[in-house]
Amino acid sequence: MSEFNNENENRESVNFIQKIINEDLAKGTYGDRVQTRFPPEPNGYLHVGHAKSICLNYGLAKKNKGIFNLRFDDTNPTKEDDSFVESIIKDVKWLCPEWEERIFYASNYFGKMYDYAVELIKKELAFIDDLSADEIREYRGTLTEPGKESPYRNRSVEENLNLFVKMKNGEFENGEKVLRAKIDMASPNINMRDPVIYRILRESHHNTGDEWCIYPMYDYAHPIEDAIEGITHSVCTLEFEDHRPFYDWVLSNIDDFKDAPTKQIEFAKLFLSKTMMGKRYLKQMVEEGYVDGWDDPRMPTIAGLRRRGYTPEAIQNFCEAIGVSKAQSVVDIAMLEFAIRDDLGPKAPRTMAVLEPIKLIITNYPEDEVEYLESENNPDNPDMGSRMIPFTRELYIEREDFMEIPPKKYFRLFPGNEVRLRNAYFVKCVDFIKDAEGNVVEVHCTYDPETKSGSGFTGRKVKGTLHWVSAKHCVDAEVRLYDYMMEDQDYDKTNFLEKLNPKSKVILKNCKVEPLMKEHKIGDRFQFLRHGYFMIDQDTREEHLVFNRIVSLKSSFKK
RNA sequence: UAUCGUGUAGUCGAAUGGUACAGACAACAGACUUUGACUCUGUGUGUUGCGAGUUCAAAUCUUGCCACGAUAACCA
Predict the structure, then answer these.
(1) What burial class does residue A465 get, using C-beta atoms within 10 Å of its C-beta: 0-12 exposed, 13-18 middle, 19+ buried?
(2) Residues A535, A309 contacting (CB under 8 angstroms)
(3) Are A71 and A104 in contact, with CB atoms under 8 Å apart?
(4) What's the pLDDT band for A13 if we cut at 50, 70, 90?
């Protein structure tokens, strides 16, 4: 008995999709196979909402010793482009470094899809319709009223077959004819009112070129794609719920797929607070120049998050943390920020960088002396070692770390107060100098040699510790601070562009960083003490380091 | 207005019909601190949207209502 005591400890909550899989595994619905897929249309960049789907599907496959396919749902050549194919592959590989790179294209199944359409025609389950798009819409009825049948609905199998071949051979104009499934024009589910399954589109396809002039519709193509690849659990978002009956209809009416080899399961897509997620609107922000492209660090795209400095692990952890359900919900952006802080905490070296410098002069420190002081790279992770930092008479400290008249509970530098310079000495403010406009330009201090870092001095304590760099040795840098582009995701989409935060990107050009930072590479991440986590950006020049702020630290000091 | 789906703490989310909330984020408080971060420790009484029914027992099953979402492309 007692040996089972540990069973309930460490219990992991299992999401509702995994429960379905468990049931299928137990019943042997698909044998012992689990196969999932992520099926984007290559018509834009992936965003963090897609990351949720990728992590979900990939994770499900992995957890169940199954297979995960990336499949391009490229059935509409008018919207698709090879550049999007490339960006999507890059993003998925980046997010899932251990993935076997199983990449598929719906367009490679066009031949089979055509044959299955012929099969449906022969079974009198599909017909060629001559109605125009407008007429089809009219005949379809409305949400509350049933539709009526097309006058072409009862053509003979012979005639339908004939016309379908002609459609394929390019004997008709775009829009002149379509192939429709023959189901029920009175169905309360509009997707079942004789949905169009093939249309004529004279457009060059990114993969098949000009081989086809007819293209299958998503609703018809998708179940076939899944079935061909052997997908067992076709996981998609909630808006396809109404399409499931047709998904099942297609499979059950094609002989090859009669035994229902796959099923569709829907989950709620991700919404993030303060974040615009609609592809259409992201596109607008890119095209109208509100951001600097799809990988602008303010964008919620995977490319943007990568450029900002997010790690794949952080995004994976985030996707794990938010869970999966069918309840439409808005996740707090703070969860995403936690994920990257949490991931970088033990990984990112701590360095000293002064974003808005003000000079600090130690009046009792020798003019030309340079002292090298040891600093741990990451106090939480001793394995990361330490480095030597030059200390001199003239330093830069943060402008906000000195106040002429301090507010209550301010324990940084002000006249008469003593603080620690990190890794160095206690210094006491004895004077300060203002320019003609009254801005403080220099702070004068004295230091106490007894208080050297690591000396074990315990004579007195200070409440504040400041970061600093040696004025003579430091390196100039540009730092870019990013903020949310919107206050809330719940805004009026018609004029959201006018409400975008104009200060979502702030560039600080006069920053000073530790000299050793020069030796680091693009993509390296750091914690600049008290400022948060940063990454060296891709357009860094030799003379001039450029940093993106990935995420700030939580600060409880209110001015 | 039709159909389908969804309503559990500030936010995500757990909970074989059996003591309502495991876990995470956020917030607040305290401890610690060579940065006020990190770390650690605390802090949640709420008619599980509302009402009825079934049951010894309902967040869970049934049903009515309410709210929200999706759907009337030859888009996906």
Answers:
(1) middle
(2) yes
(3) yes
(4) confident
d(CA A13, CA A28): 23
Q: Say how many residues make up chain A.
A: 559
Q: Count of CB atoms within 10 A of residue A480's CB?
A: 18
Averaged pLDDT of chain A: 94
Determine the average pLDDT of the residues in A125-130: 98
Main-chain phi, psi angles of A421, to 5 degrees: -90, 125
Q: How far is CA A370 from the centre of its chain?
A: 46
Separation in Å: B17 C1' and A244 CA = 30
Confidence bin at A11 (pLDDT 50/70/90): low
Inter-axis angle of helices A333-344 and A312-322, nearest 10: 130
Question: Per residue in A176-209, pLDDT tens?
Answer: 999 999 999 999 999 999 999 999 999 999 999 9
Closest CA to A73 of A224, A175, A294: A224
Give the separation between CA A549 and CA A508, rounded to whole angstroms.
11
The model's pTM: 0.95
- pLDDT over threshold 70, residue A489: no
Phi and psi of A98, rounded to 5°? -95, 5
Tell me how many helices (H) and strands (E) chain A has. 12, 28
Burial class (CB in 10 A: 0-12, 13-18, 19+), A290: middle
Give the nucleotide with minimal C1' distance to the Cα of A341: B38
Task: Give CA–CA dist A419/A427, Å, rounded.
Answer: 6
Distance A228 CA to B5 C1' (A): 29
The nucleotide closest to A379 (CA, C1' atoms) = B38
Confidence of residue A114 (pLDDT cuts 50, 70, 90): very high
